[in-house]
């Protein structure tokens, strides 16, 4: 027979045998008492384990609260930093647009001066017969005036 079969048979007939033979029941009870903890000691151990678990639980709760507090602080710092960065980028964009507009005005002014100078050179060259009108404009692709 296999071990599983023996265990099954013992489970089936043991209660009946213990009822019919009190001396066997006493022997089984004695063996069980010797191999197991007394009830009061088992309860004391159980109480200590519960107390330990409660301490652990309180510690976990405390650590979680601290963690959530730190997370909230970091979140606040992040939001402040983000707002500051967005503000600075807006300022830089505004400054860049202003500078770009100033450069555009200056570039347009110089461009107009260059066109006037080219026109003067063309006029002078035409008067003296050095080169035909519009020859200075041709490399720039400008129409003749």
Word description of this protein:
- This protein is an all-alpha fold and 145 residues long.
- Helices cover 84% and strands 0% of the residues.
- The protein is built from three helices and no strands.
- The protein has helices at residues 3-20, 22-35, 39-128.
- The model has no long low-confidence stretch (mean pLDDT 88).
N-to-C SSE string, H for helix and E for strand: HHH
Taking the sheet with the most strands, its summary is: none
The secondary-structure class comes to: mainly alpha
Beta-strand residue fraction: under 5%
Chain-averaged pLDDT: 88
Taking the alpha carbons of the first and last residues, their distance comes to 120 Å
The helical percent reads over 70%
Record field, number of beta strands? 0
Give the CA-based shape: rod-shaped
Residue stretches low in confidence (pLDDT < 50, at least 5 long) are none
Task: Supply the number of helical segments.
Answer: 3
What's the quick description here?
84% of the residues lie in helices and 0% in strands.
Topology:
Blueprint lengths: L2 H18 L1 H14 L3 H90 L17
What would the keywords be for this entry?
about 0% strand, about 140 residues, 3 helices, mainly alpha
């Amino acid at each position: 027979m296999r071990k599983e079969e023996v265990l099954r048979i013992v489970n089936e007939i043991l209660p009946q045998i213990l009822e019919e033979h009190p001396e066997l029941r006493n022997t089984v009870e004695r063996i069980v008492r010797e191999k197991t903890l007394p009830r009061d000691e088992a309860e004391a151990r159980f109480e200590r384990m519960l107390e330990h678990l409660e301490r652990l639980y309180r510690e976990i709760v405390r650590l979680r609260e601290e963690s959530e507090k730190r997370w909230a602080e970091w979140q606040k710092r992040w939001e402040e930093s983000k707002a500051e960065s967005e503000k600075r980028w807006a300022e830089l964009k505004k400054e860049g647009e202003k500078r770009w507009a100033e450069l555009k005005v200056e570039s347009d002014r110089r461009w107009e001066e260059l066109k006037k100078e080219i026109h003067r050179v063309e006029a002078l060259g035409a008067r003296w017969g050095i080169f035909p009108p519009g020859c200075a404009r041709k490399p720039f692709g400008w129409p003749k005036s």
